Amino acid sequence: MAENNQPAAVYAALKEQAEQNRNRLFEKPLILIGAATCGRAAGALKLTQAVKDELSRLQLEANVVEVGCMGHCYAEPVMVIYNEGFPPLAYGNVNDEVGVRIIRDYLVDGDPGFEFALVALEPNDFFPTFSDFPRGVHENKIVLSQCGFIDPQNIDHYLALGGYSALVKALGAEPDAIIAAVKDAGLRGRGGAGFPTGVKWEICRRAQGSPKYLICNADEGDPGAFMDRTILESTPHALLEGMIIAGLAVGAEKGYIYIRAEYPLAVERISLAIRQAEEKGLLGANILGAGFNFAIEVFQGSGAFVCGEETALIASIEGRAGIPANKPPFPADAGLWGKPTIINNVKTFAYVPHIINNGADWFRSIGTGTNPGTAIFALAGKIESTGLVEVPMSTTLNELIFEAGGGIAGGKQFKAVQIGGPSGGCLPESALATPIDFDSLVGAGAMMGSGGMVVLDEDDCMVEIARYFLDFTRKESCGKCTFCRLGTKQMLDILERITKGRGEPEDIDLLMELAAKVKEGSLCNLGKTAPNPVLSTIKHFRGEYEAHIKEKRCPSLMCKDLIAYYILPDKCERSCDACVGSCPAEAIFSNEDRIKVIDQEKCVKCDSCKVACPPQYAAITKLSPPSEVAAREQREGAK
Amino acid sequence: MTDRITLVIDGKTVSAVAGEMLLWVALDNDIYIPHLCGSRDDQEKPASCRLCFVEVDGRPLPVTACTLPVSEGLVVRTGGERVDALVATGFELLMSNHRLDCKNCPANGDCALQQIAKTRKLKLKPKKLPVLERDLTVDDSVPGILFDPNKCVLCGHCIKACLRDGNGILGFTRRGFERVISTFGDLPLAESECSGCGSCAAVCPVGAWSAHLHAEAF
Amino acid sequence: MELTAEEIRIAANTTGDVLAGFSDSRGNLIPALQQVQNKLGYVPRVAMQKAAAHFRIPAVEVYGVITFYNQFRLTPPGKNQVKICMGTACHMRGANIIQEAWERRLQIKVGETTADREFSLERVACVGCCTMAPVVVINEEVNGKITPTRVDGLLFAHELDKKNAAEAKGGAE
Fold first, then answer.
1. Is A268 among the domain residues?
2. What angle do CA C113, C116, C120 make, to 5 degrees?
3. How far is CA A515 from the centre of its chain?
4. What DSSP state is assigned to residue C27?
5. CA count, 13 A, side-chain hemisphere, A78
6. Is A123 exposed, middle or buried, given 0-12, 13-18 or 19+ CB atoms closer than 10 A?
7. CB of A448 within 8 A of CB of A407?
8. Which residues are B64's β-sheet partners?
9. Is residue A480 part of a domain?
10. Which residue among A179, A234, A639, B134 has its CA within the 20 to 30 Å range from the CA of B119?
């Protein structure tokens, strides 16, 4: 390739302009509000409006910017203020009232409101920073480093902080050198399978056939996973930059981002990012004057989990039902429209600019030899600090859940952690020392999946969670092949009868036999992994299955058909009518002693009364099996 | 390329064209492998019925014969503990979703399911699994054709035949357990531009489609 | 649900307009159908037939695509679409109880639309707001930490908004 200094020069001018634009923001107090989907669900848009109204009422000059998600979802809505006199501060759980108050106190009276602050963003003498908390100690943010701090709707923010510099570097390198860098870094695909990214790229580069295509798989379908959504909503240009570099490496000029239909905000933000990158000459024809063309198109999914499977995703872009095809041929040889195609996950692409900029050795210095880099997890469920974390590979589950994640919410007992969604498994307490990496998790009976992690506590029934996932895969199975279509249905039927108290002693063996055959016989990975939640729960929590089957009892008091609600007579306050008012079925009445009693015939088990009963009484409890109610009533004398 | 190679199936040495799929090579040499969905001229192999599993030397897992191109020196066994168990379960799953009424079925005696059961010594009636009765509407709206979707095993032969010989009115619709072969909008055949050619009935391996004579025809 | 002649006419015209913006390349089929649904709220039979003719494929293939994907609707949705998130986190925090609360209050089942076409109720795959579980999406707005009593609150707020809007409209006239 001829020496071409043009990209560097064009880029330098773009960057300078961007820096100027971004620096201007800091001339006034700067207020960032986390307005990704999670923030919005917690009221971020209302907060933004309230803050803007207050600023104009007080006639204060300040810049308000909607940003993405910082990952501290438990504290949404999150607000950050950059103002003179104090380090930049992030505030958590900022409802509009608190937000308005902070604005007033800080910008008028100079009181930064430490009582509402979560963390300071720079080292200082006043307030702790991220590194003063266990989460900050464990985290090593690469892909997420800018999430929540830059304006995802303004390309200048990304550019000003050095964004697209890796692209400039890549434009000056030979494609084989880019592939070599990714290979040397040992980057493994973050979609779940962990296939070496560089190897995949090399196969595609060498493959006959033209044109070649690139597809970003943003069909994040695992329930409980939201890493890709956050990246799309918070730092869309990182993905675009990674894709352009990949296009350069494999020799593709066209890329698709396949986003699931349930992510409207992500579609909006990535589409805007594409337009802005095109306007700056970073995307489209003759990128940065280097003579390389690359276009990116957003393709919206229509709601089918199976489209996470490469061949099904391709069928979907080709205008067909998302039904997987037999492999080989593999997409790297014959994919979209029969042409060589690279499919990588959002996170995989987002690592690429960092690897190009910092080198393979840097990437390898994080994590372990076979699993370099970081892992990004979405922590959800019964954990204190829900949200997104990015930790080096080899961090243990224990560290992630109990240190970075702050342990179990509400002082409850840890029971299991579900990793990898419908393809993954539930790991018990004894597996908490497992290091997080592709191979160790598979060894422990789960899988990395795309990074969803749902923590379960003592109130969660493991048979029910297995039933939930099977119900999911049963509904999402494309129905093409026998084992998946009928095997998941038969397994689900068995699990349903167990949770309804109609299980038979031989059901556990039958489940295990079907599970083994569905894994072995299914055509695609959806079917091959669908039995995992069942197998892992039977392996680690067989006792719970047996309680359901033999005693018709749900030890976690979760399976509706196996529980009944009961009001403890000695705890009922009598004159309080909270439960009566809350009951949608008029199933609660007062007996002659004015103690409340539940008419079991009428009760719909909606849980409303238990929520309504004031915590100082806590008079409502669940019993299993339901026959316990009669026994207790007899013993405790309530009628 | 018509390189001929030799391979061994169940101890029998056979000669075949390199790259041909094992399933057809075996059938051509009078070695039966259960199968429902594949055709020799498939552009894209369905590989969906999952009954043609075989064991291959050097491969740890069973392989579907319909997707395995033959090559020199290949050693294959169509049976064996692992493959037999897998095929038995696959067959039982299919049978748990097939309305069993052989006595009154037009395909009785010429049915792929009966053939599989006979050669593999499997029961037609599922022994461990409950029957998943769907109770779908039987379509007899076009004279000479009867479609009972409750018997359908979703092999897709009728769809291909209808595209080839008829008006292309059949397709896979819905998904998962609800996946069926139907017309546009689930309309009866008589309202679906069905040409009445009967190719569907001719290719159906299990009697879901059959040539059906209305009483009036006599 | 039977469509009126007027509804069919609108659907045919809208579909025609949408298809005019697409070439007949098969890859445009799903984006075109999505646009039809964005405009109409559903993809009726006439729209599928027009799409099949435009892309020169059998109508049953379009029907196969529409019935395969979760997002496509064959019948008109309610004015307000209530979608209950069925992600893991929501499920473990009682999404079923929330679903039942909506079903009780709206007197319809999931997948149905109220007789006045005011509300339709659906289950939706994980919307990725797991930390706000359980989550209900009403139209495009994500509502977190829902309880059965908040279902009543949301419906009440909706009634109130409707009343206010009607009054504002009445006042303006």
1. yes
2. 25
3. 27
4. G
5. 26
6. exposed
7. no
8. B53
9. yes
10. B134
CB B126 within 8 A of CB B95: yes
Of the residues C14, C37, C68, the one at which a domain ends: C68
Q: What is the pLDDT of residue C171?
A: 56
d(CA B207, CA B115): 13
CA distance to partner chain B, nearest, from residue A329 (Å): 11
For A470-505, the pLDDT digits (tens) are 999 999 999 999 999 999 999 999 999 999 999 999
* Element containing residue B146 per DSSP (H, E): strand B144-147
Chain C hits for A323, Cβ within 8 Å: 68
Same domain, A401 and A546: no
Q: Is the pLDDT of residue C162 over 90?
A: no
Q: What is the pLDDT of residues A104-138, one digit of tens each?
A: 999 999 999 999 999 999 999 989 999 999 999 99
Chain B residue with minimal CA distance to C63?
A: B184
Cα A152 off chain centre by: 18
Report the gap between the CA of C99 and the closest CA in chain A (Å): 10
Cα-based angle A603, A609, A611 (whole degrees, multiple of 5): 140
Cβ-in-10-Å burial (0-12, 13-18, 19+) of C123 comes to: middle
Q: What is the mean pLDDT of each run of 10 residues along chain A (639 residues)?
A: 75 97 96 94 94 96 96 93 95 96 96 95 93 94 96 98 98 97 97 92 95 96 88 98 98 97 93 98 97 97 94 98 95 96 97 98 96 94 92 96 94 94 93 94 86 92 95 96 98 98 97 98 96 96 98 96 96 92 89 93 90 94 96 79
Q: Which CATH architecture has domain B134-218?
A: 2-Layer Sandwich (3.30)
Strand order in the sheet with C80-85: C119-124, C80-85, C136-138, C141-143
Indicate whether A86 belongs to any domain: yes
Strands C80-85 and C119-124: parallel
Nearest-angstrom CA–CA distance, A234 and A221: 19
How many angstroms separate the CA atoms of A501 and C89, rounded?
24
Whole-structure pTM value: 0.94
Same domain, A509 and A523: yes
CA–CA distance, C126 with C140 (Å, rounded to integer): 14
Name the CA dihedral angle for C153, C156, C158, C160, rounded to a multiple of 10 degrees. -130
Peptide bond into C134 cis (omega under 30): yes
Task: Check for a shared fold between B1-133 and B134-218.
Answer: no
Residues A350 and A487 in one domain: no
Q: Answer yes or no: are the C-beta atoms of A363 and A393 closer than 8 Å.
A: no
In this structure, the answer to whether residues A401 and A269 fall within a common structural domain is no
Nearest-CA residue of chain C relative to B166?
C58
Task: Supply the CATH number for residue C139's domain.
Answer: 3.40.30.10
| Residue C60 sits at the chain B interface (C-beta within 8 Å) | yes
Using one digit for the tens of pLDDT, what is the confidence trace for A184-202? Answer: 999 999 988 899 999 999 9
Residue A30 backbone phi and psi in degrees, to 5: -115, 125
pLDDT along chain B (218 residues), means of 10: 89 96 98 97 94 97 96 96 97 97 94 97 96 95 96 98 97 97 97 96 96 55
Question: B36 to chain A: nearest residue by CA?
Answer: A482
Q: How many residues are present in chain A?
A: 639
With H, G, I as helix, E, B as strand and everything else as coil, classify residue A379: strand
Q: How many CB atoms lie within 10 A of CB B218?
A: 5
Are C86 and C135 members of one domain? yes
* Residue to test with chain A: of C86, C106, C131, most A Cβ within 10 A: C131
Interchain CB contact of A254 with C (< 8 Å): no
- The helix (run of H) or strand (run of E) holding residue A580 is helix A578-582
Residue C102 lies in a domain: yes
Choosing among 3.10.20.740, 3.40.50.2300, 2.170.150.70, 3.40.50.150, the CATH entry for B1-133 is 3.10.20.740
Alpha helices in A107-196 (DSSP H): 134-138, 155-160, 165-171, 175-185
